[in-house]
Amino acid sequence: MTHSTDTGAVTRDTKLRVSIASLAQAQPSILYLRDGDVVLYRRSRSLLYQCRYRLADGSWVRQTTGKAALEHAIARACDIYDEARYRQRLGLAHRTHSVAQIAAVCCVDLRQQIDAKGKKTALNDYLSIIERYFVPYFGERQLETLTHTDIREFELWRDRQMTRRPKTSTLNNFTSAWSRVIETAVSRGYISERVPVPKLTSKGEKGKTRPAFSKEEIEQLLAFMEGWSQQGRLAVEREIRPLLRDYVEMLLYTGMRHGTEAMGIRWRDLEWHTKDGVRYLRVWVDGKTGGRWLIAKHKAVDVLRRLHARQKDICELSFETTFTERVPHLLFRFSDGHQPHSLVGTFRKLMRDSGLLVDGAGQTRTLYSLRHTYATLALLEGGADIHTLSKQMGNSAVMIERHYSKLTATMAADRLA
C-alpha cells in the first residue's frame, strides 16, 4: 500500500518535470503565470530569468528571479509574487529592505544636506552614528521585524563599543539619527507609517557642569593674553597667538559656539544696529542649530580693529568700509589669509602658561568654558533673562534653564531676601 502511494507521488513529480522540460525545450519567450499576474521572461543576453508581477493596486514591478533553470525560475517568481501581495496587505513595501539599504539612502540624503550647508552641523553627527553603529549592528535585518528586545541589545552593544555610558546629549543624537532612518523608510515607501518601529532610549547619564571662569579669572586672563600674544618665537606662533587672543575675547563677548560657528564668520556677517541713538555690533552666525543674529558687547569692536589691522588684503580699507562693502573674507585668519584648522592646542598652551588650565573642582577648562562663562555672567551680573539668553546663544530656553537653574535663585536674591 505504501509502495503504491510512493509510486503515485513519483509519477506526478515525473509528469511535472516532463511538463517543465517540454516548456524549456520549446524555449518560450514569455510565460504567463497566476492568471497573467506574473510574467516570466529571459533577456537575450542574460542566463537568468526575470519576472514582472502585478500588485493589488494595478501597478507592475520588475525583479530578477536569480535563477537560470526554468523550473526554479517559475517557483521563485511565484514566491516573489506571493510575498509581495502579502506584504502589501500588511501595509509594507512590496519588497523587503534591510537596515543597511535604508541607511545607505538616508546617508546620501544627509550628505546632500551637509554639502548644501557647507559647514559642520548636527547632521554630521547623525551620519557618523548611522555608519559607525546602526549599519554594523543591524546590517541585513529589516526595520519592521525589530523588537524592543533587539533595541535594548543594540544599546548594550553600543555602550560597550563606546566604553562608557553615554550622556543624555549623546543619546539625543542617537534617537535623532534613528528617526532619520525611519523617516527615510516611510518616505520612500519601504515601510508603512503604521508599522511600529521601536524607539531608542534618550535618557542617559547626567552631564557634568562645564568648568567656567570667575569674573576675577577673566580679568587675569585678559591681562595675561596682552603680553603673551606678543611672545611667540616662531613665525607661526607670532601669527596664531594674536589670533587666539582675538578669538578668546570674541567668544567671551558674544557667547557664540567655538569651532564651526565662530570660525565660519566672515566680515560681511558683521553689521551695525542702531537703537535709541546707540550703535550696537550685530553678528550673523550659522552652525549647529542654524543661523541667528546675536549682539556683541561693545568691547568686541576693539577685537575687530586688531583683526582688521593685521589682515593684509583688507587693511588698506578703512575699518568702517569693511562693514559697508560686505567683505567676503573670513574673520579669524592669519595676516596672509590662511585660517588654521584648529586653535584648541594653542588655547591649551595658553591655559597652562596662565595657570588657569584647571578650575577649583579639578576640571580642565576648554574653549567651551568661554561660552559657559558668558552665560553665567550674563545671568548673574548682566541681568539677562533666560529667554533672551536662549536667543543669543542658539539654545532652547529649556536647555538654558536645565543647565543654569541653580543660578535663578541667586538672580532673584534682592527679591527673595
Can you characterise this structure?
With about 425 residues, the protein is α+β, with helices and mostly antiparallel strands. The chain folds into three domains: about 80 residues; about 90 residues; about 150 residues, hpI Integrase, Chain A. Helices cover about 50% and strands about 10% of the residues. The chain contains 17 helices and seven strands. The strands form two sheets. It has a four-stranded antiparallel β-sheet with strand order 1-2-3-4, covered by helices on one side. Strands 5-6-7 form a three-stranded antiparallel β-sheet. A hairpin with a 2-residue loop joins strand 5 and strand 6. It holds the Pfam family Phage_integrase. One of its GO terms (molecular function) is DNA binding.
Question: What is shown here, in short?
Answer:
The protein is α+β, with helices and mostly antiparallel strands and 417 residues long. The protein has 17 helices and 7 strands. Helices cover 52% and strands 10% of the residues.
Main attributes of the structure:
Integrase; alpha+beta; 3-stranded antiparallel sheet; 4-stranded antiparallel sheet; DNA integration; elongated; 417 residues; hpI Integrase, Chain A
Question: Count of helical segments?
Answer: 17
Total separate domains: 3
Overall geometry comes to: elongated
Within the CATH hierarchy, at the fold level, what is the topology of the largest domain? Answer: hpI Integrase, Chain A
Count the strands? 7
Q: Order of strands across the biggest sheet?
A: 1-2-3-4
Structural class: alpha+beta
Q: What gyration radius follows from the Cα positions, in whole Å?
A: 32 Å
CATH superfamily of the largest domain: Intergrase catalytic core
Q: What is the oligomeric state here?
A: single chain
Task: Report the order of strands and helices.
Answer: HEEEEHHHHHHHHEEEHHHHHHHH
Class of the largest domain, according to the CATH hierarchy?
Mainly Alpha
Fraction of residues in helices?
40-55%
User: On the 0-100 scale, what is the average pLDDT?
Assistant: 86
Strand % is 5-15%
Unreliable runs, pLDDT <50, ≥5 residues?
Answer: 1-5
Major pleated sheet: 4 strands, antiparallel
End-to-end separation:
103 Å
Instruction: Provide the CATH architecture of the largest domain.
Output: Orthogonal Bundle
